[in-house]
Design a protein that fits this description.
mainly alpha, membrane, sugar transport, cell membrane, capsule biogenesis/degradation, Transport permease protein
């Protein structure tokens, strides 16, 4: 029961902290007339993607060591382990977005009809996360230090993405660098579908989708290529 409660409680507590820091102290906003409630929901939409991203990658670094008893069994399909991490984080994020939609309905700010495309908009991000999860799981089996490196990079990517602040708050000559962050395009797309903010250009979405497919292929290929040595190093 506590585990199920934590699915709702963990993102809510994180939302309260970030809303206080960025909404009341730093007074960040995605619009001049935006109230605290709208700001919190907008912030929450980005934090959910960051949570999915961070949960999958941080757990991937140690997933082979944590389940070494399964990895050492020749009949066990080790590719299930990275996929289970992505699936679990996807469920948690899905519950979070359901909470956002319900909250918007209760606050008399129902989302537009475009919200039905929300699952489709998350597909490229899901492919990206899956590819990175397979890569990190493969490297993490051989190198213990991968976990520390991943934790540092996750914090860096969070603050170098429009999760905690709008892209319009940055100089125009800096904004295009944020597009290299795997969180940027999905966060902008989700907020556009939920809150009616500007959608990223089609070319950027297409480029991100192509990069996600290539990343998935490379990640799965690398994992399958090196998994034969997992049992030996574990």
């Amino acid at each position: 029961m506590l585990g199920r409660l934590w699915v709702f409680l963990a993102p809510f507590l994180m939302l309260m902290v970030y809303t206080f820091v960025f909404g009341h102290i730093l007074r960040a906003r995605w619009g001049a007339a935006q109230d605290n409630t709208s700001f919190a929901l907008t912030l929450f939409a980005g934090l959910l993607l960051n949570g999915m991203f961070g949960e999958s990658l941080s757990r991937a670094a140690v997933v082979m060591h944590n389940h070494s008893n399964y990895v050492k069994k020749l009949v066990f399909p080790t590719e299930v382990l990275p996929l289970s991490l992505v699936a679990a984080s996807l469920v948690n994020s899905g519950i979070g977005y359901l909470i956002i939609v319900v909250a918007m309905l209760l606050l008399n700010h129902p989302p537009g009809l475009w919200v039905v495309f929300l699952p489709l908009s998350l597909l490229p991000f899901l492919l990206c996360v899956t590819g990175l999860t397979f890569m990190i799981a493969a490297f993490g089996a051989y190198f213990r230090d991968v976990n520390q490196i991943v934790q540092f990079l996750l914090v860096l990517l969070l603050f170098l993405s429009p999760v905690l602040y709008p892209m319009t708050s940055l100089p125009e000559d800096v904004r295009h660098y944020l597009l290299l962050n795997p969180l940027t395009i999905p966060v902008e797309m989700v907020r556009a579908l939920l809150f009616g903010t500007p959608m990223p250009p089609t070319a950027q979405i297409a480029a991100y989708s192509l990069a996600s497919v290539l990343l998935l292929i490379c990640g799965v290929w690398l994992f399958l290529r090196v998994r034969g040595g997992f049992a030996d190093v574990l």
